Fold this sequence. Notes:
Number of helices of chain B: 12
CATH architecture of the domain at 8-95 and 172-262 in chain A: 3-Layer(aba) Sandwich
Structural class of chain B: alpha/beta
Largest sheet of chain A: 6 strands, mixed
Structural class of chain A: alpha/beta
CATH superfamily of the domain at 8-95 and 172-262 in chain A: P-loop containing nucleotide triphosphate hydrolases
Distance between the termini of chain B: 22 Å
Shape of chain A: globular
CATH topology of the domain at 8-95 and 172-262 in chain A: Rossmann fold
Radius of gyration of chain B: 22 Å
Strand content of chain A: 25-35%
Strand order of the largest sheet of chain A: 6-9-10-3-11-12
Oligomer: heterodimer
Largest sheet of chain B: 10 strands, mixed
Largest interface: A-B, 28 and 25 residues
CATH class of the domain at 8-95 and 172-262 in chain A: Alpha Beta
Helix content of chain B: 10-25%
Helix content of chain A: 25-40%
Number of strands of chain A: 12
Radius of gyration of chain A: 19 Å
Amino acid sequence: xxxxxxxxxxxxxxxxxxxxxxxxxxxxxxxxxxxxxxxxxxxxxxxxxxxxxxxxxxxxxxxxxxxxxxxxxxxxxxxxxxxxxxxxxxxxxxxxxxxxxxxxxxxxxxxxxxxxxxxxxxxxxxxxxxxxxxxxxxxxxxxxxxxxxxxxxxxxxxxxxxxxxxxxxxxxxxxxxxxxxxxxxxxxxxxxxxxxxxxxxxxxxxxxxxxxxxxxxxxxxxxxxxxxxxxxxxxxxxxxxxxxxxxxxxxxxxxxxxxxxxx
Amino acid sequence: xxxxxxxxxxxxxxxxxxxxxxxxxxxxxxxxxxxxxxxxxxxxxxxxxxxxxxxxxxxxxxxxxxxxxxxxxxxxxxxxxxxxxxxxxxxxxxxxxxxxxxxxxxxxxxxxxxxxxxxxxxxxxxxxxxxxxxxxxxxxxxxxxxxxxxxxxxxxxxxxxxxxxxxxxxxxxxxxxxxxxxxxxxxxxxxxxxxxxxxxxxxxxxxxxxxxxxxxxxxxxxxxxxxxxxxxxxxxxxxxxxxxxxxxxxxxxxxxxxxxxxxxxxxxxxxxxxxxxxxxxxxxxxxxxxxxxxxxxxxxxxxxxxxxxxxxxxxxxxxxxxxxxxxxxxxxxxxxxxxxxxxxxxxxxxxxxxxxxxxxxxxxxxxxxxxxxxxxxxxxxxxxxxxxxxxxxxxxxxxxxxxxxxxxxxxxxxxxxxxxxxxxxxxxxxxxxxxxxxxxxxxxxxxxxxxxxxxxxxxxxxxxxxxxxxxxxxxxxxxx
Lengths: 263, 480
């Protein structure tokens, strides 16, 4: 049950954004409160990934108009690292490989930058190893992955687990997970989904960006939004995802046609 | 501001070691002729054979022309306008550190090389060279207990002329090239290392070279000999004050390994690189070569080159002994108007010889950074192998990176592999790190460290973090 008094974590109003001078988002509105799980579904090219990158502050994307507020604070002027430190987390669809940079050291520096923001003490290598090994259990990850370079040579599933591990370490207020389920076999999907479930807190929120219903069998969303042509065109509960699975995205086209006919 | 600009700003860093030490210096007049060479030799009380060596080299040098083949343009050096010997005024070598001018000790301490007994590094012996002379060598007695000789080359010339006469000029002949000939004629000081048969040197050896005078050329000479089954790890570091004229540094380094011996030679070169307009800086024209004379012997070069206005440097291995191994690991970072042309030569002569080359070049600003290397497999070197990997990273769009691998093989039963790549700092990698709360500067320096990690892993433990710090410093921008 969601209390109406709970705090709004993310509030997006009439957001227009472009990449390479091409407008991709045409007025997105979204409000996410504490404790909520939202799913955003839609076809390739509908703007889902763009939305997640704009929230995280990717420098290739330009906000044309509209606003994004995080806990009441306007974040559009913040650098990506500042957004991360105040508790915005983006789980990447394709986490990049960074050869030569130790995963352990990367995770430690990242964790400490967040801890510093929260006025918690920074962890030295030994303290951090204890913490990270504890958190790795959530996604059933072998500590051997700490010794490797960031994501280098990881399988698709290992990369996604490494993403959820980062989420577990950074303890964000909002996690936007971009197609975390893509490329996962059913076992890996269960591990990742159960990790996300374990990590969800009454004080935090999650946005799942996905193509498929199957992730939503594991994680029950409070709201399902359907995105098309850079806008959220329909919002409902988890039934909407099930309907979508049954009838496919064709109804979007039907909607569009109906509209065009009315016009 | 574009991302590229910001990365470039980070790479532009102030030079931390640009100060000058005010100290009374004894200099000989400018210019070069036979009398000057006799004067240098006399000042150092050298035996006659060495004076003859110098004079032979000088005669060769007069016949040689300054090379211009690498396409590096720089304002030419006026060799008659240089001082060939400069020394802080004090008796050449003090018996104890207490007698060394405190200003000199202070200088080295400021450079992060404390020499006094209380502060010195616990497991590294240091030879500190200031302009033309060696100021002090630490841990000499302890090393002597193992039969290891570690001293300035001037001292070795007096104490062990037998070894000097036997080895000096045998790896890099006096007429090898223009700068080697010049060095052979006028070299002032440098380090000497001798590891006797069967001895594993009990600590890291290190030389620290400091140029202080502006109009003085520095011509250091280093000779390292590892007898059968001996091994040693040696590191040199270099800094210089900021002058708006160019200072010439033309060193010669010779290494010799006999059967089953190993020498690991590491360099962290941070000479003054000139300012952001390309004015001033050191001309770093050095000849470094090692000969694996013995079977199963090994010579490994690793270098982190971040300084100097112009660098010409090809630490090489001559693999004579059967089953001998040569290695070259290099990081070269250039910025502003710096020009670096560096690489190695691996000359396979013996059977089943192996060599490995890993070169990482990072170019920013309007700098030019080239890898130039030769892999040569002789007719008798059957079963020999080489692996080369040359990676370049470009920062901004005005820098250039080039790779010139020369490969010659006269032996069909050999195997040569070469890989090369060029990349830019990837926006996606940067964003990934930033999106985890890591700030921009730290992200850039993490990516560059990652790019160089194959080479960092080869540096002696004591210095790997130092080199990483140096690189980070170089990348730190105004924060440093």
